[in-house]
Write a structure and sequence with these properties.
With 183 residues, the chain is α/β, with parallel strands linked by helices. The chain has helices at residues 56-70, 88-97, 108-114, 121-129, 156-165; strands spanning 9-10, 12-18, 21-27, 32-36, 45-46, 106-107, 142-143. Helix content is 28%, strand content 15%. It binds a DNA duplex (13 and 13 nucleotides) through helix 3, helix 4 and strand 7.
DNA sequence: ATCGTCATATGAA
DNA sequence: TTCATATGACGAT
């Protein structure tokens, strides 16, 4: 066979209201599949699940987690996340990102090194861009090696704002190095 | 300091 | 296989 068909999976779309606008959470029967910024639209999913197919606790945990991140506070408990659409490598990167503490920033190269693939910084960046659950999987805490913002699927404005919320200072100039907020 | 170029891993077409 | 990436290191200017 040449290619696999587009892996459209059945989901339920839930709107999550926040002070920053309405996010959209997509749940499969296995957990949270995708989190979309206000105004973003999903693809690769099929809205065929019913409300009864998704436990209310998942929605509650997701809502609380999103709102805590937007408030710059630690997330208490995350909902189950369905990352089955990711490749093994992507799952490892996403897992590593979840270990970055609030208030700190890592880099694509550091994560690559943590995965024992010191040359795979660029691949890590690509995996970050494929992160289906921003905020809860804190890809915004990953900067370039020189402290530059790098990129962000939801837009650099979001990345900058999220980091500021967590007390991570970034310089407007590209020549700057990463600065941490901690004393 | 800024720019161009190359090396390198992964994934989609 | 070819092309595109949310990189990083190096050398020339």
């Amino acid at each position: 066979m040449k290619t696999n068909a587009p892996p459209k999976i059945p989901v339920l779309a839930i709107s999550i209201g926040t002070v920053e606008g309405d996010f959209t959470a997509l749940f499969s029967s296995q957990g949270l599949v995708n989190l979309l910024f206000p105004g973003e639209k999903s693809r690769r999913t099929q809205p065929t699940l019913k409300r009864d197919d998704v436990p209310a606790t998942w929605i509650k945990k997701t809502t609380e987690a999103v709102q805590k991140v937007l408030a710059g506070r630690k997330t208490a408990e995350l909902p189950p996340m369905d990352l089955s659409l990711g490749t093994p490598f992507q799952k490892r990167v996403w897992s590593a990102m979840q270990q970055i503490p609030l208030g700190e920033a890592s880099s694509y190269g550091k994560i690559a090194t943590a995965l024992e693939m010191p040359k795979a910084a660029r691949a890590v960046g690509a995996a970050c861009g494929a992160n289906p659950i921003p905020l809860l999987i804190p890809c915004h805490r990953v900067l370039a090696a020189n402290g530059a913002l790098g990129g962000y699927s939801g837009g650099l404005d979001w990345k900058k704002r999220l980091l500021a919320l967590e007390g991570v200072q970034t310089r407007p100039n590209k020549t700057a190095k990463t600065v941490f907020s901690h004393p």
